[in-house]
Amino acid sequence: MAAPPLLTLQDVALTFGGTPLINRADLTISPGERTCLVGRNGSGKSTLMKIAAGLVEPDKGRLFVQPGTTIRYLAQEPDFSGFSNTLDFVEAGLPPGESAHRARYLLESLGMTGAEDPKKLSGGEGRRAALAQALAPEPDVLLLDEPTNHLDLPAIEWLEAELRGTRAAMVLISHDRRFLSALSRATIWLDRGETRRIEQGFSNFEAWRDAFFEEEERDQHKLDRKIVAEEHWLRYGVTARRKRNVRRLGNLHELRQNRRDVRRPVGSVSMQASEAESSGSLVVEARDIAKSYGERTIVDGLSLRVMRGDRLGIVGANGAGKSTLINLLMGRLAPDSGQIVLGSNLMPVVLDQARATLEPGMTVTEVLTGGRGDSVTVNGQSRHVIGYLKDFLFSPEQARTPVSVLSGGERNRLLIARALAQPANLLVLDEPTNDLDLETLDLLQEMLGDYQGTLILVSHDRDFLDRVASSVLVSEGAGRWVEYAGGYSDMLVQRGQGVEARTVAPTKKEPRERTAPAAQPAGKPKLGFKDQHELKTLPARMEKLEAAIAQLKTILDDADLYARDPARFDKATAMLAQAETELSQAEDRWLELEMLQAG
Prior knowledge:
The chain folds into four domains: 7-207, P-loop containing nucleotide triphosphate hydrolases (Rossmann fold, 3-Layer(aba) Sandwich), CATH 3.40.50; 209-261; 283-495, 3-Layer(aba) Sandwich (Rossmann fold), CATH 3.40.50.300; 529-598, Helix Hairpins. The protein has 18 helices and 20 strands. It is of the alpha/beta class. Strand 8 (186-191) and strand 9 (194-198) form a beta hairpin. Helix 7 (205-237) runs antiparallel to helix 8 and helix 16 (529-556) runs antiparallel to helix 18. A six-stranded mixed sheet has the order 5-6-7-3-8-9, with helices on both faces. It has a six-stranded mixed sheet with strand order 14-17-18-12-19-20, sandwiched between helices.
């Protein structure tokens, strides 16, 4: 006899601002079940997960949880208030009296020490700490909303292995196809406010979904034909048979009402890149280049050629130096030794996934038009900004919406829309897949497949790399980078293993005590209190400086700024030079302190 469900949602409905978000949704979670929850951005997946976690009250419907069932929900924005460090935060999720050993193990496995100040965590560090807290008590039910966001490849592959070994039932929301395919055994599809379920994992979902849409389209076509036939009868036959066929006339009105009531699938994104004149055959060549910061080597002896039409994927753990490598290849950063040769007629466009180039106070329209008019030029043709926004699933009402209120997926779509409107023969995409739904990812892949220019791509999405990249450049550690033909899976076959994590903090067999710093061997440099504080605060300072630099560059990208406002141009130029100097000094100091701590 099957065990009773641990959690059940039945006939749930929820309305936001007068618009139904969820009409009729069901969710059943049995012991040990592995389910993925899929649907378009904005379909209500995260809201349904919060209802299951008891964090949102539905307008109607029933939530039942078996007595004694422990449920853990991975929050997108965890609350760290009241915790002095990340270990305290994770330990707070443990049942009373349980050893803190698992909390330390999870934090160290995710590349953290437990001593991090919650007030100074980056987005990726916050996600890792939240994951550790959710996993620590080994609950009966895990509700994980985008658990791979901000994680690098080693962390994603570690998380996959950890979740495979857990006894907990799981509901997963993720844009990472490989992650969903590896872990799910059932799929719940939230579409137009209703849920549909198949007892198969995500790898079978897309074929099932497409077959469903085809059947729905056939049914709609039959309904349309029936309406046409009934309308023909109405025009030519109703007068002679009025008394006998009043009911038939009523049936026609009912058919028309059914036709109006059909809820069509959410519109699709339409993507097309603006292409410039072709570049030269050679796009960029690195000749035995090297780059170091202090004692840390980022690149050592790399020789590489990127030719017109290549699709180069760059992969490595967080901190491996992927962004530095891109800056070297783009000529924005000079190597310590060796030579970078850029090809002729290059017109690059860079998609910055840090989203620092989106000023929060700007509206969606201003981001695309630069604040000038209401049209945008795409592939040499002028288009009204509203029409162009519709291609990327923005409603006309959102045209005047400030960037600050957009969701992560909406910001990413806006960045992509702006990047694709600019003429380019070289696209540099840094984590373009973050926060995008699966259908939008499909269209982005198709667009990149049709793109005639050159692509340099940084991504932790293994499936995306397999579909897009023609070769993969992998960090092998100690500044060594090796290029492999094909996508990520081809690299695994050739290399025999995946990407290793970059260890920054010292790893010890015994967990580090929180009350005192770990002892260091005699003769090794030791950080004092001030240095420890500086080391903790420098990453946040560098992040702020990078964001400031990106904003200043956006301001200076305005070709008319000098003529329109010379004072602002001079001020922005001086501020940019100062910020870049401060960032360079901060990076050098951070590397120096890291080496002292690890020494």
